[in-house]
Amino acid sequence: MSASLQEGAAAIESWHAHVYFDQATKTRAWDLKQRVGEAFGERVTVGRFHERPVGPHPMWSFQIAFEPEVFPDLVPWLALERDGLIVLVHPNAGDDLLDHRDRALWLGAGLDLKLGMFERG
After folding, report:
1. DSSP-derived 3-state class of residue 86
2. 63 pLDDT higher than 80
3. Tens digit of each residue's pLDDT (9 = 90 or more) over 21-62
4. pLDDT of 9 higher than 90
5. Helical ranges in the chain per DSSP H
6. Are 73 and 44 in contact, with CB atoms under 8 Å apart?
7. Which of 99, 96, 103 is nearest to 119 (CA)?
8. H or E element in which residue 64 lies
9. Per-position b or e across 67-83, b if 16+ CB within 10 A of its CB
């Protein structure tokens, strides 16, 4: 890896994956939450199961927080195991607006996030 690529990757402190669900997909989401915890254990931190929109997220969701070295294992696993759920994966590189809007990856259809909370005044 070139020095400039290493510097760019080093700007990523951690990653978040946000798994979206609603009343109709709640059971699938709960199952995925359990399975990710079993599959990755202490390598990830699985957050609360929010049955309401939280922050910039337009749907119910739960978060998976992980370090950069877990990315090559977790993200492909989510791509295969998400059971039709929509997942937002974004870096935490110090700029919430850019991280959620310009640097994000979507598994499944993308959603319109509520980014106003990150807008610079």
Report:
1. strand
2. yes
3. 999 999 999 999 999 999 999 999 999 999 999 999 999 999
4. no
5. 3-10, 26-40, 71-81, 96-101
6. no
7. 96
8. strand 60-66
9. eeebbeebbeebeeebe
